[in-house]
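Technical annex, item 7. During the second reporting period the consortium partners agreed on a shared format for inverse folding records so that results from different sites could be compared directly. Each record opens with the tokenized structure and is followed by the designed sequence. A conforming record, contributed by the partner at site C, is shown below for reference.
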């Protein structure tokens, strides 16, 4: 098992001199982007699952993954040639408030691999304490690690920009956690997931140095990020900066639209959890919308404020970009370069939102007249306790020749409580009639469009399989008892999320009633 490391971050950015001297105690790290950090050895590592795709992307064979060298390296027990482990310094706004220094409290990067002209940073989550761990142990538990492993890969196959996951291992050691923050801490199985991304640089990496008025380190980090992570950007230094910030804003706009498309809710959109590459990063208390609810959040910590609810994610993303812009004022060539980036977010988000909604509804275009159709759709969906994923898949089965009553029968199974629909039925039937008229008009105006073509488009946009929280929790419960069958079955399902497979039909169902209030099956805490 061999890698080609070039480790540009540790070679080119300022190092924490105290860590270099062996001082690993939690503290404020000044004037440094990274700290040399060794993973802590674990007692009995065991590989539970790995991504075949990610392994191949890194140039690893199946025999490499099954080797003892892989087990030892990706559990943090032993370094291989070229690895230079480190953790990084960043801050962040958490739930709208500046939180000060945060940093990689339980994430340790092993180094940067270059393979087939692509760069991949390999990062262990749960591999032990770092200078940024504060009072924590730097470890992670199986339930959170399994969820991150599965969701990283599920999102990739859905076509949503994301960090990836190479491997999931247990450590053979227990980790003490208070899952509900209610004073009932208990031992849980420890685990480590290896995350993979071209870069793990976040908005908060820039914020911390701006808050400290450390212009030199901030400027070095900006220059480095542009050169390494945005190599396509050319021009003068000022032109590069403007293009770079605009690219961050546009990638963020595209990302949030993709979350809307598949019904994903991040749950913790703090600025320290926002990637400059526009990747979904840090899978904590995330969730998938079951019954459509604009105000639903999967995060128990956010239950009252609902800051990071499903329908508020675009606004939060814009707010986070404003905070990044405020941090960059110190080194920006002009205020205009920052405002142009924020304007680009607004323009692209709105443009892409129209394209996303058109695709979900099977429309060839999205005009002003379709705004009312969409607004009315989401209004009655909000009131009707209808499954977001199941509804759009059922909608694809409608024929332009059908009546609204016939269409009603096709979407009926998407409702969680059909017996409560009396008050909404007229609204739903009226909307179905308008939608059917819209697709009839579309079919008549386009020789190329047919019911079959529309269904194909919709089914390529609206997933058949999503990693619902209750499914992940079933896999966790089984894995904690030594049964990996559900984990591996979900791995199979997530690889083809738009296809229909009879053998996986039991995984496509709406959330069962028993899962509505069961721990881990709806809302989740930040505990991991």
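Designed sequence (site C submission):
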């Amino acid at each position: 098992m061999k890698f080609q490391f070039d480790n540009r971050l540790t070679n080119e950015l300022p190092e924490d001199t105290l860590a270099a001297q062996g001082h690993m105690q939690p503290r404020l790290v000044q004037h440094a982007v990274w700290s040399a950090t060794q993973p802590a050895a674990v007692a009995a590592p065991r590989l539970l699952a790995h991504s075949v795709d990610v392994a191949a992307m890194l140039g690893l064979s199946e025999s490499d993954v099954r080797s003892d060298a892989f087990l030892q390296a990706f559990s943090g027990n032993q370094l291989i040639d070229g690895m230079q482990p480190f953790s990084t310094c960043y801050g962040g706004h958490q739930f709208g408030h500046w939180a000060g220094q945060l940093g990689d409290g339980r994430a340790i990067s092993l180094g940067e691999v270059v393979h087939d002209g692509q760069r991949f940073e390999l990062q262990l989550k749960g591999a032990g304490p770092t200078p940024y761990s504060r009072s924590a142990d730097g470890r992670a538990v199986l339930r959170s690690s399994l969820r991150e492993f599965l969701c990283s890969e599920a999102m990739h196959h859905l076509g949503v920009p994301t960090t990836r996951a190479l491997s999931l291992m247990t450590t053979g050691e227990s980790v003490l956690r208070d899952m509900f923050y209610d004073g009932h801490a208990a031992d849980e199985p420890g685990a480590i997931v290896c995350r993979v991304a071209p870069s793990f640089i976040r908005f908060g990496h820039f914020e911390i140095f701006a808050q400290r008025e450390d212009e030199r380190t901030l400027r070095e980090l900006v220059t480095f990020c542009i050169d390494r992570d945005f190599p396509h950007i050319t021009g003068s230094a000022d032109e590069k900066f403007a293009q770079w910030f605009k690219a961050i804003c546009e990638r963020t706009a595209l990302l949030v639209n993709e979350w809307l498309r598949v019904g994903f809710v991040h749950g913790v959109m703090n600025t320290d959890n926002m990637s400059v590459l526009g990747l979904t990063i840090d899978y904590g208390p995330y969730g998938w919308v079951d019954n459509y609810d604009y105000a639903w959040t999967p995060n128990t910590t956010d239950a009252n404020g609902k800051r990071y609810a499903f329908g508020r994610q675009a606004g939060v993303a814009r707010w986070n970009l404003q905070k990044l812009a405020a941090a960059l004022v110190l080194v920006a060539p002009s205020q205009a370069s920052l405002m142009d980036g924020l304007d680009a977010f607004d323009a692209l988000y709105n443009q892409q939102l129209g394209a996303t909604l058109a695709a979900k509804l099977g429309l060839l275009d999205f005009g002003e007249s379709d705004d009312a159709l969409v607004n009315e759709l989401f209004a009655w969906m909000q009131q009707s306790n209808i499954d977001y994923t199941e509804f759009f898949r059922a909608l694809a089965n409608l024929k332009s020749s059908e009546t609204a009553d016939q269409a009603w029968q096709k979407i009926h199974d998407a409702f969680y409580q059909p017996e409560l629909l009396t008050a909404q039925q007229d609204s739903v039937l009226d909307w179905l009639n308008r939608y059917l008229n819209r697709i009839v008009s579309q079919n008549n105006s386009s020789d190329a469009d047919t019911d079959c073509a529309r269904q194909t488009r919709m089914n390529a946009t609206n997933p058949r399989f999503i990693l619902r929280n209750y499914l992940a929790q079933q896999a966790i419960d089984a894995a904690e008892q030594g049964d990996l069958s559900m984990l591996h079955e979900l791995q199979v399902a997530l690889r083809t999320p738009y296809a229909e497979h009879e053998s996986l039909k039991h995984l496509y169902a709406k959330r069962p009633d028993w899962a509505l209030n069961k721990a881990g099956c709806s809302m989740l805490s930040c505990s991991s």
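The longest helix spans residues 335-361. The mean pLDDT is 95. All partners now use this format for quarterly exchanges.
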